[in-house]
# Entry
Amino acid sequence: MSNLKTGLSIIAAAIVATAVVGPKVVGSQFESVMQAQVAKLNETPGYTAEITEFESSWFASDAKISISLDLDASSVNTDVNEEPMEPITSIIDVTAQHGPLLFNDVATFGWLTMTASVDGRSISENITTENNQPLYQITDHMTLLGNHSFNDMMPALEFNCVGCEQPLKIVYKGYEGAGQTSSSGIVYQGKGLATEFYVTEGELMFGNMNVDFTGDVSMEQLFAMGFYDSTARMLIEDVTYTNALTGQKVELTGLALTTDTQLDEKTQLANMSIGYALEAFKDGQYDGQDFDVEFEFTNIDSEFLKAYEGFLKQANELIDSDPEQYNSLQAEFIGKHVLALVEANPHVNLTKLNGTFAQGSFNGQLDSELVNITALPENIADPKFWLTHAKANGELLIDKGLANYFAQLMVASQIRQNPQAQGMPEEQIQEIAQAQSGTVINSLIQQGFIVELEKQFVSKISLLDMQFMINDQQIPLPY
# Structure
């Protein structure tokens, strides 16, 4: 019994010591992590960050971080005549409670609870949020096992710039998201409400937006350039634009963006697909539905993006101060990392291209790759070099009714641009276009650009060894 009491006393003492000493240790580590993250952000091209205030007590910490984003410096800009953009500056207020005992709405265990928020007024005096809430706020809870659960939000807000060169008013209904991070990666879901844009020319309305993300990646890696296993999807329910002068409306329904990335840990080569979808659109003249465009990128060297991030930082420091050193840096980057990128036999495929109009449907695909590259030419922009190492195959199928409709649109457009047809009634333009559309189609058939099937036209293309073919007919290249 005595041994049991002794054991319990030791355990109790350890718990008390952790509860008393733990917060101070957590506070010290929190400050170190924050300093490291600010230093990391300063390595990112275009960003300047500084901890302007930091106060820490035994059980809590408070800080202010100033962040500035120079949009010109975030990419290499060689156009000296382009007018520079004003940097975006904001102040982030950070508050944290130190565990292992945390007291929020309810008492709980955990190493840290942190809230970071941005005051919209620190970005622009034209921003007004509902009940003066922060423009953006994220709350993160770190468990005793080191996992994180977090929530972020934007309140309903209004941006109203009456005195701007181009008057603009934005009404945003708000956003809420939630996610978790662990050793297996990040899972996140978010929902944004409607957004309204008002300009002199008209009104642009975005419906609700849904975001889903799953990634085998740490939070730090997420904001750096690089590839990792992940899937993401963003859906905007609807978009409507109304022209203020004519009252004409363009309505889009079901706009989606999806990505899927897989990284081979051994070869460090990544495969990625990016898909765009539009459920339907109508503007009173051209109505359509079921539109898809999907690209597939394979054998992409993951080290290229990491090297490019470093190149951007160095290039922006040298491009004005030392052009000669910048040219040397650029040549080194191209010779080492661009060569590695194209040596890996990368593929860029158009796996989906389809849509439906009232007059019919179309669909197509294209496979392309770079082959047998072991060295780069002195002139990296030499088109003959790239055509020599390019290989491609693709086809496009289009219903006859839709092909004739597109031909009518082309002829009508040419008539409207003809000075001799100025003042011609639209009805007459349409009659002429309809009569000549068959001639356009027959001309394309005779030239071999399309082949007539029972209900469709087809066009097949291929490129190999500088031989460009359309429907088995060779097309001379200018190189």
Notes: The helical segments are 2-42, 219-222, 302-318, 323-343, 383-388, 400-417, 426-446. The longest strand covers residues 249-264.
